[in-house]
Amino acid sequence: RSSSVRLETGEWRRCRALAITPPASLRSHGSRSFDVAVIGGGIVGLASARELILRHPNLTFTLLEKEKELSLHQTGHNSGVIHSGIYYTPGSLKAQLCVRGAMLTYQYCQKKGVPYKKCGKLIVAVEREEIPRLKALYERGQVNNVQDLRLIDAKAIREKEPYCRGIMALDSPNTGIVDWQLVALTYGKDFQEAGGTVITDFEASDIKVAAESAAGSAEGLKYPIIIKSSQGKEVRCRFVLTCGGLYSDRLSEISGCSSEPRIVPFRGDYLVLKPEKNYLVRGNIYPVPNPRFPFLGFHFTPRMDGSVWLGPNAVLAFKREGYKLFDFDTQDFVNAVSYRGLQKLVMKNIVYGMGEIYRGVFTSAQVKNLQKFIPELSPSDVLRGPSGVRAQALDAEGNLVDDFVFDGGKGELGSRILHVRNAPSPAASSSLAIAEMIADELEKRFQL
């Protein structure tokens, strides 16, 4: 039913507690000049920094993170699923990177002793009209080379998930769960042990080409890029990789590169099953996605700590790192609502959006959706849970940018920067494969 549990729950908690606070040496700044600076201490930035330093141990690397600790935002607020690559358009970077990334993740966790579970996933059709879409997902998964997929009937659904009701499901036994923040911190530990320098509490506010060096110094010639923090600190480097997540568009802008695609934050609020009701769910249970709407819908997700999350909804966040209902930032709000792309997206999905807001406010409405899959569930069985904020890239026509986007710029500064402009879900599942691709691209662009 579930396999590959590397540590029992109590051991997992101790492992996470040890990893959650970076060692003091991670906070030490050391040298201020480096061959490559990576901006962003989320899972993509950490995986990329790790891959680069392992390939190029003779170069110097730093990772700059604006918070006092690593991986506090998207990486630390996601559902914890190791996706297998079923949903994504064949041939897309999403499909290629997710399938390879999931394989690499399992290998990495096995090697490092990071706890995980292959608890599987059922994508469940509860209405006959969903069956053609379910079968199409199966075909897509086959094309994407997702292993061991099978379509199962109502009886087989009940054998795997005794409390789940559906008429057909797509069974993905290689879907798993892991604590992605713990994985990311382990990447950071690898990076540091290989000689990398992590500088926390460094919010990049300006990226520019250095002025001519002082007499007798070759610093400006060897390390021509200056990254300045909002507190006035500086780091020099030869090349820059930005993995800014919710701030990827702003990092691009301050370096003189394109402001689009624009990042619009969407908050997802989860419910949590009361512990005495955890028996209702064994593995991941997902609905058949509706192609008319941009997100995957409410689902059931077991967690490594033994809890079960239900949801999320998807509503516009009024702050890029706003995890609470009333979190508000004027700049973030104005940037979002004044953007033509968001205005067009809202008009195309206004009914769906109002429904998401309603379900976010009224727990019973969210439970009603979940009862289609587990009828025994009741509003009294759930509590309000955590929230996450998704960095959704939008173009000016209101289209969700669905695939990974990487770009740079022109001139002396732009030619020395690679921006990860969009790393949508399943970026965590794909992180090691993304890191390989980014390292390949940096080697090509910068002739490392």
From TrEMBL:
GO terms, molecular function: (S)-2-hydroxyglutarate dehydrogenase activity
Protein name per Swiss-Prot or TrEMBL: L-2-hydroxyglutarate dehydrogenase, mitochondrial
Keyword Transmembrane helix: no
Gene expressing this chain: l2hgdh
Catalysed reaction equations from the record: (S)-2-hydroxyglutarate + A = 2-oxoglutarate + AH2
Cofactor: FAD
Documented EC number(s): 1.1.99.2
Keyword terms, alphabetized: FAD, Flavoprotein, Oxidoreductase
Family: Belongs to the L2HGDH family.
NCBIfam families xref list: PRK11728.1
Signal peptide per UniProt: none
Name of one Pfam family that matches: DAO
PANTHER family, per the entry: L-2-HYDROXYGLUTARATE DEHYDROGENASE, MITOCHONDRIAL (PTHR43104:SF2)
